[in-house]
Amino acid sequence: MAATLQGATPVPPDAPASVVVAIDGPSGTGKSSTSKAVAAKLGLSYLDTGAQYRAITWWMLTNGVDVDDAGAVAAASGKPVIVSGTDPSAPTITADGADASGPIRTPEVTAAVSAVSAVPEVRAAITALQRDIAAEAARTTAGIVVEGRDIGTTVLPDADLKIFLTASPEARAARRGGELKARPGDAGVDLEATREALLRRDAADSSRKTSPLAKAGDAVEVDTTDLTLEQVIECVVTLIEDKRRTA
Ligand SMILES: Nc1ncnc2c1ncn2[C@@H]1O[C@H](COP(=O)(O)OP(=O)(O)O)[C@@H](O)[C@H]1O
Ligand SMILES: Nc1ccn([C@@H]2O[C@H](COP(=O)(O)OP(=O)(O)O)[C@@H](O)[C@H]2O)c(=O)n1
């Protein structure tokens, strides 16, 4: 798999040391929206690691790999070339050169991603890619915000700052429900079904053997249930600025 840093903001020669920020948490806690906004505000790169797991899952589904067969998934794990663009204002993701940004958000991919991402060979390949991208960003830009499930615990245990976002299942389901458009003739979004699907994915991601969803011991936990997105962004910007001041 190839690591390519695209859309990076070049770092001026007299700039302060770069910063590496890990943001983890379950689905719907605001990781992507917060990470993108914070990175854009502070001139940092941005990496959505969930998009990478979704892209490899999409590649498996479209290349005839049985995603319920861990052996088949493991055997194919090194085949696709996943490339992430790290500009927070226009993040991109491709698999073997094909734009995956639309297909990775389909219900089919969402339903299969936890099984694919639990396969150790998939995690090894994607983790190596993530570390390459973070190292390249730390070397050539002002730094990077990397968001996912195991960034603080496994991918970047030496990150300068680790944040773990949480929110109640009800708040997360309402947020996800707000993103899903009701089709004509539908009764609307079923919040209970959305909540159950979220909790199922949390359980699968938290209980897998290899690198489960978990809060790192040295992560700052931010409960976003009663915060607006703007408040969460402000909170994370402050944490990063404080970290930089005291570094
Ligand atoms: N604090 C918040 N309050 C209300 N809505 C939020 C908040 N944080 C995020 N959202 C919204 O919730 C949805 C899910 O957020 P997202 O950033 O994709 O979460 P995650 O990456 O953790 O799955 C998005 O529509 C986003 O705009
Ligand atoms: N660092 C990561 C990021 C995502 N993932 C997997 O990828 C899936 C999709 O992640 P995502 O961040 O796009 O999910 P949402 O929270 O946006 O729905 C998760 O449910 C995990 O199974 C992972 O295993 N490790």
UniProtKB/TrEMBL annotation:
Record's catalysed reaction(s): dCMP + ATP = dCDP + ADP; CMP + ATP = CDP + ADP
A GO molecular-function descriptor: dCMP kinase activity
Domain Cytidylate kinase: 21-241
E.C. number: 2.7.4.25
Localization annotation: Cytoplasm
InterPro entries according to UniProt: Cytidylate_kin, Cytidylate_kinase_dom, P-loop_NTPase
Gene3D superfamilies registered for this protein in UniProt: P-loop containing nucleotide triphosphate hydrolases
Key word ATP-binding present: yes
Highest rank taxon of the organism: Bacteria
Chief localisation class: cytoplasm
One GO BP annotation of this record: nucleobase-containing small molecule interconversion
UniProt keyword annotations, A-Z: ATP-binding, Cytoplasm, Kinase, Nucleotide-binding, Transferase
Any one annotated GO CC term: cytosol
Chain positions recorded as ATP binding sites: G25, P26, S27, G28, T29, G30, K31, S32, S33
Keyword Nucleus belongs to the record: no
Xref: NCBIfam families: cmk
Family: Belongs to the cytidylate kinase family. Type 1 subfamily.
Protein name: Cytidylate kinase
